[in-house]
Write a structure and sequence with these properties.
Layout lengths: L1 E7 L10 H13 L7 E6 L4 H11 L3 E8 L5 E4 L5 E4 L1 H9 L7 E6 L3 H7 L5 E5 L5 H16 L4 H14 L8 E5 L35 H9 L5 E5 L6 H13 L4 E6 L11 H15 L6 H4 L6 H17 L3 E6 L2 H4 L2 H17 L9 E7 L18 E4 L5 H10 L6 H11 L3 H12 L5 H7 L8 H12 L2 H11 L9 H10 L2 E4 L2 E4 L2 H10 L5
Parallel strand pairs: 1-2, 1-3, 3-6, 6-7, 9-12, 9-13, 10-11, 11-12
Antiparallel strand pairs: 3-4, 4-5, 7-8, 14-15
Length: about 525
């Protein structure tokens, strides 16, 4: 008899997963299987690290199935005594499974970004499965059902894996390439040679089909999960060129593949004539969304009478756009910073977005509107706490790339570097996605070496000249901000420049916080501004 140990963990401070449904479907599938007498299922809910160890000792399972959250290289998330998440490192997991290598035959990690753990556990266990990116509830459950149905029909682990992937396809879920198999008994008929990828000039939004977009777990998976919630509001904030628009486009694409109508509006595209009046701006806003949804514009039907502009805009959505589409609408609002410059419309417009979000909690029509708000700057305009969309919903603060993600980008550029070279690059540009990609593009094109880049980068002759000059011009328009940056780049330790200046510099992407103090984001900025501002370090 094969013993199957199913462990699940869904801490209270992580996104809700349908683990109960997954386990129920596994049990139901095996109970109806012709070989049902060959399997014995044990379950461990809300698994803590000690529960994992004890279950392996007590049950001595042949198959271990984990359902829950993964965060890539950092590990898997189990629970602690307070039912909150507790990270378990990849190394610790691999070492634990190594102690049971003579008993465990197969490990299935049904968790986002768990390929890293699968690879590590594969050092000890002959058959391990994980996920190479975020995976939705529907795909995870479908894979589990297909896998255990095949196992119950006396198929091998390897064939059961194929049935699991096929089950995702049969459910019309575009995630069948997410599960990955590590086995010593069978290798899929795919080439092990990484094909050469045409280099892309790093500028603007990274296309959906780009080979150079690097995910930052668990950001993408969290956003994909949130956008599928009724009345969702996702707030993305990060400095310019950190990948906000690229992430937004992927979240909208995910929504469109799951029965949502997805569209976006860039608020920088509003002509100046519309930004002096709330009424004109809201008409432009409604017309822009109508056009992007390929619907006939009907402003004249709703922009009449004595009702205020906000009521007219609300009626346009409630009585026309939302019922006309008759399916969830995922709406991305990019570059909302533009509206911060126009306080005469900002307070009312953002208050309107907050009101729509609140309506979605109880109103069936408004439940179909799912918003993504993207901005770079801190919100300094005065907003009533009960009328602001910036203190509700799901916040996303995009982090820099870490060293492993930079190494991933290196491989995609067909570059092989030592760890010291990677560290040299990150000392120069940090983990800023745009700065990293520019560096790797220049080097992969054989235009310069890493050492040459380090010499020329902080100069007007370097590949970052436009980027650096834009920052310099913005700083020169604000004497207080310029004075604060001078404090930062003239020392090699964290400094206190005041709350307002610190957050503004962080919004620009020039500094990072260390406690309540800030340091320069990278040597590129320190060297450039020290030189251009005539400072001596």
């Amino acid at each position: 008899m094969k013993k199957i140990l199913i462990l699940s963990a869904n801490p209270t401070n992580t996104g809700l997963l349908r683990l109960d449904k997954e386990v129920r479907e596994i049990q139901t599938g095996l109970e109806r299987a012709k070989n049902r007498n060959k399997f014995d299922i044990m379950t461990q809910w809300a698994a803590r690290p000690e529960d994992l160890r004890r279950a392996l000792l007590d049950y001595e399972p042949h198959i271990v199935h984990f359902s829950g959250h993964g965060v890539g290289h950092e590990g898997l998330i189990l629970e602690n005594d307070a039912e909150e998440g507790q990270l378990v490192s990849t190394e610790a997991l691999a070492d634990l499974f190594g102690l049971f290598k003579d008993k465990i035959e197969c490990v299935l990690l049904n968790a986002c970004y768990s390929e890293v753990q699968a690879e590590a556990i594969y050092q000890h266990i002959d058959c391990v499965m994980g996920m190479n990116q975020g995976i939705g509830d529907g795909a995870a459950i479908a894979f589990a059902i297909g896998f255990y149905d095949a196992l119950g029909a006396n198929k091998s682990y390897e064939m059961a894996f194929e049935f699991g992937c096929n089950a995702i396809d049969l459910n019309s879920i575009p995630e069948s390439s997410t599960p990955v198999l590590k086995t010593r008994k069978y290798q899929p008929q795919t080439s092990q040679i990484t094909p050469a990828v045409a280099l892309e000039i790093p500028e603007g939004q990274v296309p959906l089909d780009s080979a150079f977009y690097v995910e930052r777990p668990p950001v993408e998976a969290d956003c994909y999960r949130q956008i599928m919630q009724s009345g969702a509001l996702i707030r993305m904030k990060a400095p310019r060129q950190m990948g906000k628009s690229s992430l937004m486009s992927r979240v909208l694409d995910h929504a469109s593949k799951h029965d949502c109508k997805a569209t976006s509006v860039n608020l920088q595209s509003a002509d100046a004539e519309f930004l002096g009046s709330l009424d004109l701006f809201l008409q432009w806003f409604c017309a822009s969304i109508t056009d992007s949804l390929n619907l006939p514009e009907k402003l004249s039907d709703y922009w009449q009478g004595v009702l205020g502009s906000k009521n007219k805009c609300t009626n346009y959505f409630q009585r026309y756009l939302l019922p006309e589409i008759n399916s969830p609408i995922a709406l991305g609002l990019d570059e909302v910073d533009e509206i911060f410059k126009h306080p005469q419309i900002a307070t009312d417009f953002f208050g309107l977005l907050r009101a729509w979000h609140e309506r979605a909690k109880n109103d069936a029509v408004w439940k179909n509107l799912r918003l993504i708000i993207v901005h770079s700057k801190e919100v300094y305009i005065p907003l009533n706490i009960n009328q602001s969309p910036f203190n509700v919903g799901f916040p996303v603060d995009l982090p820099e790339l870490n060293q492993l993600q930079v190494q991933d980008l290196l491989q995609r550029h067909q570059l092989t570097w030592t760890n010291s070279q990677v560290q040299q690059l990150m000392m120069l540009v940090g983990g800023h996605p745009y700065l990293v990609r520019v560096a790797l593009y220049q080097i992969a094109q054989d235009r310069m070496t890493l050492d040459q880049l380090e010499q020329i980068a902080p100069t007007e002759a370097g590949p970052y000249n436009d980027h650096l000059r834009r920052h310099l011009l913005n700083l020169q328009d604000d004497e207080q901000l310029l004075a604060a940056l001078k404090q930062v780049v003239t020392v090699n330790y964290p400094v206190d420049v005041g709350t307002t200046a610190a957050f503004k510099l962080r919004s620009m992407g020039l500094v990072k916080f260390e406690g309540n103090k800030v340091v320069s984001l990278c040597n590129l900025y320190s060297k450039y501004f020290s030189d251009r501002l005539g400072l001596n370090k």
